[in-house]
Amino acid sequence: MKRAVVALMFISCVGPLLADSAIREVAAPAGGPKTAGEVIRRFQAARIARTAGMHPSPDVIYVDWQQDRFIIPIAGNTPGSFGTYFRSDVTFANLLNRQQQIGVVYLQAGQDNTNESPRYFNLGPGAILTSFDFVGNTLGRSGIGSLFVFATDAQGNSDTTAKIDGYSRIWTPQPGSTGSVSQNFDAITNDDLQGNGLTYIMGLRQNSQFRSNIGIVNLSLATHTWTVISLEGGTSATSTVTVPPLSVVQTGLPAGFGNASGVVTLGLTTDTPDLWSAYGTTNDNTTGDGWVSRAKRFTP
Length: 300
What we know:
Elements: H1 2-14, E1 18-20, E2 24-26, H2 36-50, E3 69-79, E4 85-94, E5 100-108, E6 119-123, E7 127-131, H3 134-138, E8 143-152, E9 164-173, E10 180-186, E11 193-194, E12 198-205, E13 210-218, E14 224-230, E15 238-243, E16 247-252, E17 263-270, E18 275-284, E19 290-294, E20 296-298
Parallel strand pairs: 1-7
Antiparallel strand pairs: 2-6, 3-4, 3-8, 4-7, 4-9, 5-6, 5-8, 9-10, 11-18, 12-17, 12-20, 13-16, 13-18, 14-15, 14-17, 18-19
């Protein structure tokens, strides 16, 4: 009974949620940001204004998600290992009963995306829209990268009253079968992690059966480096990952990060005081099955 009441309250606040299979691109608004760098500078300014007088510590994870912007850490249209080919089906949701314009910036992996241009789309009132192979079919891009999604008004100004959400399933046909295997990436706030602090990723595997990757999203306007260490007893493996401005790097973990049982737990430190996010993935070498573990910040 309680679940039914909650569902009715949600629908009455949002209006009728409308599923659709198409997302409609619109012309860039005259006053909208022209580059990814400009998008980030605007949000940095808004963030500073929002936290003025709060004196937040750089070691504290920000959990105040305004729901007017988010990132999908990784999405792609690219061949992978062992005969796989990955595509991302991305879902966007407008959680208000009004028209909503969003901008999407594709942050291509491994390159400086400061001058990348946003693309703009309309979401109808209460609309939930899924774009199959969003990177390839809608954006016309290849490779892998992060998606930075933000809400704007008709003039291109940041719309801090918006309530948007997203979800991505990156998938591949399973070699040797008629099925597929996939991993999911939920939308997360771009204020995910800031600076240093005890940051960890758990639940990964590495041995003859499993391979693991580490992915780091740099939301700074400068290149930065992360140090990745094994937190498992019996191994002292370390590695470094350098990520260009407004970019992501996903790379395989070198051998030696798993303990005797193949369990992997990672710790991360960085030279950046700015915003970032990270995740780990593990894949079964036989079936291609996999899972994702997001980096978390320990705050005592």
